[in-house]
Specification:
This protein is of the alpha/beta class and 453 residues long. The chain has 3 domains: 11-100, Rossmann fold (3-Layer(aba) Sandwich); 103-305, UDP-N-acetylmuramoyl-L-alanine:D-glutamate ligase, CATH 3.40.1190.10; 316-451, Alpha-Beta Complex (Protein-Tyrosine Phosphatase, Chain A). The protein contains 15 helices and 20 strands. The protein has helices at 18-30, 47-54, 87-95, 102-109, 123-136, 151-154, 170-173, 200-208, 227-233, 278-293, 298-305, 335-343, 382-391, 403-413, 435-451; strands at residues 11-15, 34-39, 58-61, 75-78, 99-100, 113-118, 141-145, 163-167, 183-186, 219-223, 239-244, 253-256, 259-262, 265-269, 316-321, 324-328, 349-353, 372-377, 396-399, 419-422. The strands form 3 sheets. It has a 9-stranded mixed beta sheet, sandwiched between helices. Helix 5 (123-136) packs across helix 10 (278-293), helix 5 packs across helix 11 (298-305) and helix 14 (403-413) packs across helix 15 (435-451). The longest helix has 17 residues, at 435-451. Its main location: cytoplasm. Cell wall formation. Catalyzes the addition of glutamate to the nucleotide precursor UDP-N-acetylmuramoyl-L-alanine (UMA).
């Protein structure tokens, strides 16, 4: 770990805990800063805050009082989930205080190269694929960020022999200053998180921050099938490495004659790849580009792509029962993600969908419901999804109370060769704490059904 001295004796406010705040506070304390932690959760219900207090770190819990800023802080390290509309953050901006997220700390202390992955969709799958390819190729990857361990925790043990593979959200990227990945990836850009970002422009700028400090020695891997993204990429001075499922790209990754190529070199035939879906081909191309730039051999890449079944809760293959294949796509918390999943299959689909009603309609699903043979619906949005299902002529539409009930019902109405797909197109919070809980319940129900057949 690079023992940076810039934080010694500096007064730093860590705003918001969770995993990233705890690691950031402990790290800054170790680096000699005078750290104050402020978290909304009351102290008596806050084991993280209690643990930091035991380390000798000042802790203030229960609210975010603006008056805290009267203590003369020189820096704020903000939990990414806290919006910039928070009164403390607004006041800090008025005062001109620097506001960063912990990924900035990770960059400052790490001895390793960084591959940073962002984008609206596909970040987790792309990050995981890169890690797996580098791991199989003996390139010493360390996975970090949104996908797993906090980046500034992984960075503390990273050496010059390692490469940190870091999934990055727009929330994190808004809080960087010097952060510079050697390889940056932007998988795609779609309208998202506008409840957090003040505008589409702010969201785009947050994503583009991933390349803002790159040099001519660095690489920016971008989706060549998005004209706006390719135009934005011209802002970067890094070497642009495009990937495309629709066109030939000479200095990048693309599909050609049923195979994946990187810089004119054939890597693998598409029909050998286990992971389903056009959207996953985009993720695979981005991952192949990064892996090849890091010197991973084709054998390692092929080994991953012929065995990797998908990230948990993201079009994840679960089981086959009597000719029916079950897929868990609980991470599809919006229409766009569900659309990608539905496009991934050519066989008839029994779709399990529904969840939190955010006020939107589901007409955007109509073009991809053509291959859906039946709907099994649950949650607050079940009536809305039934409406669009009927509009495209789906005759079998069944309402159930929850995901656990949906699995045996879907199996009962299915036929051999069908895909039974959980892709809710909605957040889970009307019934489940997280999409992970929803997906785990689906998996458990499938395995229970498997045991009875």
């Amino acid at each position: 770990m690079n023992k940076v001295t810039k934080y010694k004796w500096k007064k730093v406010l860590v705003l918001g805990l969770a995993k990233s705040g705890v690691v950031a506070a402990s790290l800054l304390h170790e680096l000699g800063a005078f750290v104050t932690v402020n978290d909304y959760k009351p102290f008596e219900e806050n084991p993280d805050a209690q643990g930091l207090l035991e380390q000798g770190i000042k802790v203030i819990c229960g609210s975010h009082p603006v008056e805290l800023l009267d203590e003369g802080f020189e820096l704020i390290v903000k939990n990414p989930g806290i919006p910039y509309t928070n009164p403390i953050i607004r006041r800090a901006q008025e005062l001109g205080l620097p506001i960063i997220t912990e990924v900035e700390l990770a960059y400052e202390i790490t001895e390793s190269d960084i591959i940073g992955i962002t984008g609206t969709n596909g970040k987790t799958t792309t990050t995981t694929l890169i890690y797996e390819m580098m791991d199989k190729g003996n390139k010493n990857p360390l996975i970090a960020g949104n996908i797993g361990t906090v980046a500034s925790e992984v960075a503390q043990n990273a050496t010059t022999e390692d490469t940190m593979v870091v999934e990055l959200s727009s929330f994190q990227l808004m809080g960087i200053s010097a952060f510079r990945p050697h390889i940056a990836i932007i998988t795609n850009l779609y309208e998202a998180h506008l409840d957090y970002h003040s505008s589409w422009g702010e969201y785009i700028q947050a994503k583009m921050n991933i390349t803002s400090n790159q040099s001519e020695e660095d690489f920016l891997i971008v989706n060549a099938d998005q004209d706006e993204l390719m135009s934005l990429a011209k802002q970067s001075i890094a070497q642009i490495i495009p990937f495309s499922t629709k066109q030939y790209v000479e200095d990048g990754a693309c599909l050609m004659n049923g195979s994946i190529y990187f810089r004119k070199e054939k890597i693998i035939n598409v029909d050998e790849i286990v992971l389903p879906g056009v959207h996953n081909l985009e993720n695979i191309l981005a991952a192949v580009a990064a892996a090849k730039l890091k010197g991973v051999n084709n054998d390692a890449i092929q080994q991953v792509l012929t065995t990797f079944p998908g990230v948990k809760h993201r079009t994840q293959y679960v089981a086959e029962i009597q000719g029916r294949r079950f897929y868990n796509d609980s991470k599809a918390t919006n229409i766009l993600a569900a659309t990608s999943a539905l496009k991934a299959f050519n066989d008839p689909i029994i779709l399990l969908a529904g969840g939190l009603d955010r006020g939107n309609e589901f007409d955007a699903l109509i073009p991809v419901l053509k291959g859906v043979r039946a709907l099994v619906l649950f949650g607050e949005t079940a009536p809305k999804i039934e409406k669009v299902g009927k509009s495209v002529g789906i005759e079998k539409i069944i309402h159930v109370d929850n995901v656990e009930e949906a699995v045996p019902v879907a199996y009962e109405i299915s036929e051999p060769g069908d895909i039974i797909l959980l892709s809710p197109a909605c957040a889970s919070w009307d019934q489940y704490k997280t999409f992970e809980v929803r997906g785990d319940i689906f998996i458990h129900a499938v395995h229970k059904l498997e045991e009875s057949n």
